[in-house]
Please model this.
Amino acid sequence: MEYILMHKNISVTNIIIDETGYIARIQNTHDVTHLPPGINIFKTGIDRKGLNDWWIGRSIPASRDGINDALQSIGISSPTLLIEKCYGLSLSDQYWICPKDSGLH
Model:
């Protein structure tokens, strides 16, 4: 599914998240100055591996007590997929993902 990575209300870049919850592609970068800290920019574009590492780091650790029961109760198979369902929201920063063409931002 295609999303816009947002920093507060600023569009950063369009991303495609695959069925496993990982960023499969980065498209249409809007504002690299608002990329998450530590993400490299190469001549060929944004470091997808670095952005994926940052993205997956936002999910609840699989070792957390009760996570498997919680995921099962809502019908999600992994914490990686859960972070997509809650738009990547975290209490530690102001990044989130907005479904493209949703009008949420």
Notes: The CA atoms of residues 12 and 30 lie 5 Å apart. Residues 48-56 form the longest helix (9 residues).
